[in-house]
Structure formats: C-alpha cells, structure tokens
Design goal:
Layout (H helix, E strand, L loop, with lengths): L5 E2 L11 E2 L1 H4 L4 E5 L4 H15 L4 E7 L13 H19 L6 E6 L4 H19 L3 E5 L6 H17 L4 E5 L12 E2 L4 E7 L4 H9 L2 H4 L14 H5 L5 E7 L2
Parallel strand pairs: 2-9, 3-4, 3-6, 4-5, 6-7
Antiparallel strand pairs: 1-8, 9-10
Helix pairs in contact: 2-3, 2-6, 3-6, 4-5
InterPro entries: GlcNAc_PI_deacetylase-related (IPR003737), LmbE-like_dom_sf (IPR024078)
Pfam families: PIG-L
Protein name: PIG-L family deacetylase
Length: 248
C-alpha cells in the first residue's frame, strides 16, 4: 500500500504562478533537450527565441526519432517519417533563431527511450562535456509520458557522470492535460514560475506551425496517427511559458 502524501501539480493553477524575467534565468549558453521532435518548440519555443535575441548560444538535443506518431502510414514509413520530422525540427528552430549545426538528433527509437537510455548515457556524457552548457532545459521529471520521464533520467544520469552542474530548468508538456496530470510527492521541493514571451509569441506560433505532421492532416493514411488537438495547442501558444525547478 502506498501511503505517500501528495500535493497538487503547480499547473492546476498556472495563471497564478509568479513571473521571472529572462535576465533572471539567462546565465550563458543553453541546451534544450527534447524527447521527441517538437517538444523543444512546444515547451520552450519562447525561451529559445528570447535567448537567441540576446545572442546567447542555444543548442538542441532531440532524443527520439519520432517515428511512432504515424506508425501505420504507408506514405511515410519510419525512415521517411524520421526525415520529415527532423526537417520540421530544423525549420521550426530556424524560425526561433537556431541554426541547423546547433541541433543534434540522437535517434533513439520512439516509444522506448527507457529501454535504451543506459546505452545512450555515454553518448550524452561526451556530448555534454563537449558543449558544457551553463543551463539545460529538460522535460519535467513527472511528465505523464514515459519517454519524457526517461529523457529526464538520461540527462540526469549523464550529468552525474560528467560532473557538470548547469542550471536545470524543467518544462511541462503532457501535464497540461488534466486527465493525465498527476499529483506530486509532498517531499518534493519545487519552484514554479512563468516566463513572459509576449514579444516572441508570434515567432513561437510560426515555429509550431512548421510541425505540419503533428498539427495537420499532412499524413492522411493512418487513422490512428497522432495529432495535437486545438485544445492542447492552446497551452503552448499563449503569451507565457511555465517552468519548474526542483531539487533532486
């Protein structure tokens, strides 16, 4: 029996979260880690654009190949879908001011990052040691999606092995869905806040639109294919983003 005491997620009342300015968080070069192609833009598109507006280096590491979004498509079998999703990522990030040479695709199999993360730790340690980011944006550790939780674990493990200690900022994705959102352990020390992205929100919206495979009927031969609903997209196209910082 689980007697762990829990508390409500900060996203339950996100409109009341305090504000932080970019100057408060910008401490140097940044790395944005995305479990799937599009998570970096959905969760952090505004922050990316703001950081680039200050001419700060922003790199992006995409962990999975994203090929489960339309697994039954005949028009876009896995290799073609991977290429499409990577091209969408590069297009979206170009809108936000990130050049293609700052984007790395790890290409783990979508849907099973947890089964592959041990083998990817060494790769990530080498990558992190080479770029030595001052701050890392990574998925919220309690995100309902297992690939997102596994991505957090992968980066946390790689950081421990690399002995780097950048500022860690976590971003929610599927927690925005009230039906999937869970409660948090009472023992968790977490600080939640909002970043004003009103000055770049139109750029972010354009970047999201670059992901046509995820937001339109571009791939129309898979009835079970994934598509972000208008309701879900509203959480990412507003004039602010939510971030969380928690002690390990």
């Amino acid at each position: 029996m689980n007697n762990q005491v829990t508390i409500a997620s900060p996203l339950t009342d996100s409109n009341s979260l305090p504000w932080r300015s970019l100057k408060e968080i910008a401490c140097g070069s940044a790395l944005v880690v995305a479990p799937h192609p599009d998570d970096e833009t959905l969760g952090c598109g505004g922050a990316i654009a703001l950081l680039r507006s200050l001419n700060l280096m922003v790199r992006v590491l995409v962990i999975s190949n994203g090929t489960l979004s339309h697994a039954n498509s005949q028009k876009f079998p896995a290799p073609a879908l991977q290429a499409l999703r990577e091209s969408e990522t590069l297009s979206a990030l170009s809108v936000l001011g990130v050049e293609a040479n700052a984007v790395t695709f790890l290409r783990l199999q979508d849907g099973s990052i947890s089964a592959q993360y041990k083998g990817a730790v060494t790769t990530c340690v080498t990558y992190l040691s080479e770029i030595a980011p001052r701050m890392i944006f990574l998925p919220w550790r309690y995100d309902p999606h297992p690939d997102h939780r596994a991505t957090w674990k992968l980066i946390h493990t790689a950081l421990s092995d690399s002995r780097l200690s950048p500022q860690l900022i976590e971003y929610p994705i599927w927690d925005w869905d009230p039906e999937q959102r869970g409660s948090l352990p009472e023992s968790l020390e977490v600080t939640s806040w909002r970043l004003d992205i009103s000055g770049v929100v139109q750029l972010k919206q354009r970047a999201i639109a670059a992901y046509r495979s995820q937001t339109t009927d571009l791939i129309d031969d898979d009835p079970e294919g994934f598509r972000l609903t208008p309701e879900m997209l509203l959480n990412f196209t507003r004039s602010w983003e939510v971030y969380l910082e928690a002690k390990i």
